[in-house]
Amino acid sequence: MLRLSHLLSMALLGLSLIVGCTPGTVEPTQSERPSLDEIRAEYQVALAKAQATNGPGSPALWSLADEDTTIYMFGTVHLLRPELEWRYPIFDEALAAADTVIFEVDMESPEAQQALMTDFMARGMYQDGRTLREVLNEADEAVIEAAMDKVGVPLDAFNTQEPWMAGISLVAMKMVADGFDPNSGVEKVIQADAQTMGKAFAYLESISEQADAFDLLPEEAQIELLYGAAIGLDDSAAMLDDMVAEWADGDVAGLGILVADPDGMGFSKAMYDSVLVERNRKWIPRIEALLEDPGTVLVAVGSGHFAGPDSVILMLEDKGYTVERLN
């Protein structure tokens, strides 16, 4: 059974895969879902564009500094295959130098475990007596039920979940079954090392803020997210491998095409704005505030937040900061 913290840590990863399975710039209605062949064709176009760009061969690391503060920024992947080796000397030096490590959200403290239940999980469950089956049309329900059967869980087991939670849960179970490990995720590795080194920890947002990014989506956008997870389930491991390859190469442009392109495959405008753009905007003043205190900080958050046209990096540069790519 996945821990609640594992489910939360895979939320944005799951979104990346889900939107990769759901084409486009057109907002489909329930009667206009794309076929699997259409989804695969659009994904292959995006993948070819991503693979046409190259990185330096290691995950991207940036720095932002003033006279007495250095902020390192490192994009993460929330779960990986255990055999992947991604660390390199410049990153290790940044981690060693940091006084404080900052993640997206606290998932480990006793208070966080309570909040995962009361804030995150509660937001993902229907509170008004409705059920998941009731909000799905017959065609969508058939696709989603078939996908649930593939992971060995009946749709009725998800029936009290809102569509966004069911979509994330579905992808999470499939990824673990296909050999990806939450305990091999970048945050888990960094956290273990940082604890050994005696680092302090801080966070850019609360669990409720992260949950709201999904929970406040319009219902149709949530159903689209779940449908994308279901129809593309068999391709999801290969798609994550593609995404991880771009991340591990440090190819920020290629990664942005796959996970943070508002005009490419996958994002409804509501989803893109809520899950990426608005959260990035909220983080900017919180990152700026770090410059007020002397010292060294490592900010490690999902790599999609540092890619694409609305990235944290570009938002900082638009405010006049000089952000240096270190590798």
Question: How does this model look, in words?
Answer:
- This protein has 327 residues and is of the alpha/beta class.
- The chain has one domain.
- The chain is built from 15 helices and six strands.
- The chain has a six-stranded mixed β-sheet with strand order 4-3-5-2-1-6, with helices on one face.
- Mean pLDDT is 89; it is low at 1-12 and 23-30.
Q: What would the keywords be for this entry?
A:
six-stranded mixed β-sheet; 327 residues; alpha/beta
Helix content: 40-55%
Largest sheet: 6 strands, mixed
Overall structural domain count: 1
Q: How does the overall form come out from the CA principal axes?
A: globular
Low-confidence stretches: 1-12, 23-30
Distance between the termini: 38 Å
Radius of gyration over alpha carbons? Answer: 19 Å
Range of strand content = 5-15%
Average pLDDT number: 89
Helix-strand pattern, N to C?
A: HHHEEHEHHHHHEHHHHHEHE
Number of separate strands: 6
Strand order of the largest sheet: 4-3-5-2-1-6
Number of helices: 15
Structural class: alpha/beta
